Automatic annotation (TrEMBL):
It comes from Vulcanisaeta moutnovskia (strain 768-28). Coiled coil: none annotated. This is Peptidase M24. InterPro entries: Creatin/AminoP/Spt16_N, Creatinase/aminopeptidase-like, Creatinase_N, Pept_M24, Peptidase_M24B. PANTHER family: AMINOPEPTIDASE (PTHR46112), XAA-PRO AMINOPEPTIDASE P-RELATED (PTHR46112:SF2). Residues 161-377 form the Peptidase M24 domain.
Length: 397
């Protein structure tokens, strides 16, 4: 299974209908493109052009959006009853005014409507426009953002299986990344080659019915600029020099399966690592082990991060911690819950998180592994399985 089946979307919509019943809503107005994907399987590139779906309690679903998406939405999903389109933004008549007119046409202008992000549109890409609350004073708008995110917190068996499949191809992409890494070449050369080859293999294996949902290619592996001393920046972007002997590399790999992408990150070592490199790598592994050892249902997300902080204090590396210990993952690369000292969310079966405490040493590099973990009723399942030990992560030169 490499796509989300119809029954899964029906399950999600039924959860939404339940929220609408509880809050006495006539419809839901969904703007967040990830939420649109979640409920009806339509994924698009968000721009300044407003787009939304309207989900009625009777089961009818309408798409409001730019003309350029009209065929696209009908090709991707069977759940939309009718498409309403405008030519472009900002247009002679602002799209939000058209949205208000269409809601009047649907006789929803004196109803109760739930919204996920905004009773209008979000201010990305230079967008400016009135709120539907201004244009439709007779509508009672109610935020259901928390309700929708609560649905997404717990992954279904379908979602977990898609993430497992993603983890398999992430493993392949990372294996190629390690094979292709060598001194004297740039990180992007290695990344492009590994990502291309892994994507070709993935497409051939999964067949003609498979296509990536969230990205242009099936599999990815790369460094995000974390090469050598640049690895000390957790969110480095690029590096001006080629890879060289002695570098510590921070790597990442993933694969798009039905829009779900597991997260696999590792260190690689170009040549035999120094004693300092071995020391900090092994200390980082102890931090990750501390997090994994406490991860289970009933534990607070904050407790996981606090366990890492305590271990860092015992090991004398607290000053090198620059971020929390992990985050939820699913249709988005970062989702709640966050393994952070300030997040008291109680972990429950079906939650999927990354475990990735890191330490960052100026002038030497970054030390971080990330594994994707599924929380079950009686155990946790680490679905990424690339080797973690120093020797296995050495790049031969």
């Amino acid at each position: 299974m490499y796509t989300v089946p119809t029954r899964e979307f029906e399950r999600r919509l039924n959860l939404l209908y339940r929220v609408m019943d509880e809050k006495k809503l006539d419809a839901a107005y969904i703007v967040n493109p990830i939420n649109i994907t979640y409920f009806i399987g339509f994924y698009y590139l968000q721009t300044e052009r407003p787009a939304a779906i309207i989900v009625r309690r009777n089961g009818d679903i309408y798409f409001f959006g730019p003309l350029l998406e009209s065929d696209h939405v009908l090709n991707q999903t069977k759940f939309v009853s009718r498409v309403y389109t405008y030519r472009d933004y900002p247009g002679e008549v602002h799209p939000m005014r058209l949205f208000a007119d269409w809601l009047k046409e649907l006789r929803l202008d004196s109803s109760a409507i739930g919204y996920d992000t905004s009773p209008g549109y979000v201010g990305y890409w230079g967008y400016k426009g009135p709120s539907l609350a201004e244009l439709l004073p007779g509508v009672k708008f109610v935020s259901i953002s928390v309700d929708i995110y609560s649905m997404r917190l717990i992954k279904s068996d379908v979602e977990i299986e898609l993430l497992r499949e993603s983890a398999k191809w992430s493993n392949l992409a990372h294996s190629l990344l390690q094979d292709y890494t060598a001194p004297g070449i740039y990180d992007y050369e290695v990344s492009l080659r590994a990502s291309l080859d892994a994507s070709i293999m993935m497409k051939k294996a999964l067949g003609s019915g498979y296509k990536p949902v969230r990205s242009e290619y099936p599999a990815y592996a790369g460094f995000r600029g974390q090469v050598g001393e640049h690895g000390a920046y957790p969110h480095s972007i690029s590096v001006e020099r080629p890879i060289k002997v002695g570098d510590v590399l921070v790597t990442g790999a993933s694969a798009d399966v039905g829009g779900y992408m597991a997260e696999l990150e590792r260190n690689l070592f170009v040549g035999k690592p120094s004693n300092d490199v071995i020391k900090y790598h092994e200390l980082m592994l102890k931090l990750q082990d501390a997090a994994l050892s406490i991860l289970k249902p009933g534990v607070k997300a904050s407790d996981v991060d606090k366990a890492v902080i305590r271990t860092a204090e015992e090991l004398g590396v607290t000053e090198y911690l620059l971020h929390h210990s992990g985050h939820g993952i699913g249709l988005e690369g970062h989702e709640a819950p966050f393994l952070d000292a300030g997040d008291d969310t109680v972990l429950r079966p079906g939650m999927v998180v990354t475990v990735e405490p890191g330490i960052y040493i100026r002038g030497l590099g970054g030390f971080r592994h990330s594994d994707t973990v599924v929380i079950h009723e009686d155990h946790v399942e680490v679905i990424t399985y690339y080797p973690r030990d120093t020797e296995s992560l050495m790049v031969e030169i």
